[in-house]
Structures are given as C-alpha cells and as structure tokens.
Amino acid sequence: MALVTTKEMFKRAYEGGYSIGAFNVDNLETFQAVIEAAHAKKSPVIIAITENVIKYFGITYLRKIVEAAVEETGVEVALHLDHGKSIEICKYCCDNGFTSVMIDASAYDFEENIRITKEVVEYAHARGVVVESELGAIAGIEDGEVTGDKYGVFTHPEQAKEFVERTGIDSLAIAVGTAHGAYKFKPGTTPYLRFDIIEEIAKLIPGLPLVLHGSSMVPQDRIEMINKFGGEMPAAIGIPGNLLRDASKLAVCKINQGSDLRVAFTSEIRKIFVEQPREYEIRKYTAPAKKVVREMIEDRLDNVFMSSGHAVEGK
C-alpha cells in the first residue's frame, strides 16, 4: 500500500458529510499515535508536517517512517506539508515523497498570493501532488472582529471563488474564527465559527474541499494536569468539538489539530516526572504519553470528524 493524495479522501468526505483529521506530529511517538488510532478506527488520516519538523527529522527519515507505517498497517495516509512559506519548500516536498503541499502566501497581497500559489500548483500537479492554499487571516479572536463589512478579516466568498479559479488549487484553507496555538480565545469570550461564510463559499464553489486550520480543542483536563505538575498554561481555550462537528457536515473536509497532541503528550510526561522522580527509562514515560494521544485521537475520529469506518476498503 502506498501513500495517497487527499483528492479521493476529500471527495468522499465532502459527499459523506464528515472531515479528515490532519494531525501535526512532532516526534515518533505522536506520529505512531495518529497511525495507531487511524488503524483502530479504520479512518483515513493526514500526517501534517511543518518545515521545522522536516529540519528536526530530516525529510528522508520522515518519508521512510510514514511509508513503513503504511506498509505495516495499510492505513490510508496522505503526507502533507503544512504552511509551506515558500515556493522552494513546496517543490522540495513534491520531489521528496509528499503527496500534498500547502503553499501559504496569505501574508502577501491578493495578486501576489495568486502568482505564488499558481506556480506551486503547476509544479505540484505535474508530479501528481495536490495543493492547498490559504485566504484570509487565521489569527486570534481579537484579530477577527468584523470591520468594514460583514466579513472583516475573514475569508470573503467572492474573493475565494476568484482565487480558486485563477490558481487551480485542490483545497482552500479559510478564516472563519479558528486560530493557531492553544490560546485561541480570551477568557470570558464564547468560541464561535462563521458558518455563514462556510455556507456562502460552498454555494459559490460547489465541490471544493474547505480546510480549517488552528482547530485544536485544547482539553481543559490536560491543561489542568500540566499546571498541577509544574507547568504554566493559564487560560488556554480551544474550539468546542460540537462546532467542528457541525463544520464537518458542511464543505469542511480537513480539520487541522496540533496543539492538542502537544498538550496531551506533555501533560502525561509532566505527571510521570513528578510522581515517579526516579524514573529515567525513556520508554517508561513516552509510552504512556503516546497512549493518551492515541486515545484522544480515536475519540476525535469517532465523535468530531466522524471519519471512523471511512477508509477505503482494503486499506
């Protein structure tokens, strides 16, 4: 079994009213947790890799690890570059076994974003790789207030339509209220997503897979555990699962989560370090941490993304 692109994954998800989890992994254990959860739940999954993780692992190590997991488990996996900030890194990943790349030129003006994205699309498509891009400002809630018109800094549907038509991208990351990191919302505010924008974009560009970045739920019990055992993570607030589940029923086919894996993994290790101060065997604390991450992901596949049981038959 080989790595796959997200093309068929997203088509099935779009038609079936569920989403695919894209998980940012930082080490071997979090990667294994994602693969084991996907295998247990018979779910397709996306392994999302940032440029910093490529530098940390080495791209050959990364590709071989993912290929070995697919060969051993038969899990339906896409290997995806997350937030590629340059044409060069996207091309590098296309040439080194990635099946999906994201070019994030959202910091540039609209025309320059189109120019950069189009160049990546032409290069990637010629090599059988799919492309995601971003339009709008995915930031903290304080940066997401509506100003000027009803869209504010969020993704404008008409602009999204033009962007997709002119670039030929395969999926679009939109800004509708999510934010990167664990500190998404100010204390006392109510997390929300702009479902009206999702629905407008879906009507204007039917069939286009939409993507939500910065969608970790930030489990409060794990934040409490981190703080109980010596950490300092006050007021870390994420996206409620019911909002992500509702988005999955619309045109949102890919939901990114990274902070949740880090929070779960770190909380368990902190607990072990405090409760078992004499322990120094690495596996004695990484194995329980991996188990916690796996269980969390299995729950998400079942109850948030609703992708359990949707892997291609035979994978």
Task: Provide an overview of this structure.
With 315 residues, the protein is of the alpha/beta class. It contains twelve helices and eight strands. The protein has helices at residues 7-16, 28-41, 51-57, 59-73, 87-94, 110-125, 157-167, 195-204, 220-228, 241-248, 259-275, 282-303; strands spanning 20-24, 45-49, 77-84, 100-103, 130-135, 171-174, 210-212, 252-257. Strands 1-2-3-4-5-6-7-8 form an eight-stranded parallel beta barrel, surrounded by nine helices. Helix 5 (87-94) packs parallel to helix 6 and helix 9 runs parallel beside helix 11. The longest helix has 22 residues, at 282-303. The protein starts with 6 loop residues before the first helix and ends in a 12-residue tail after the last helix. The model is unreliable at 139-147 (pLDDT under 50).
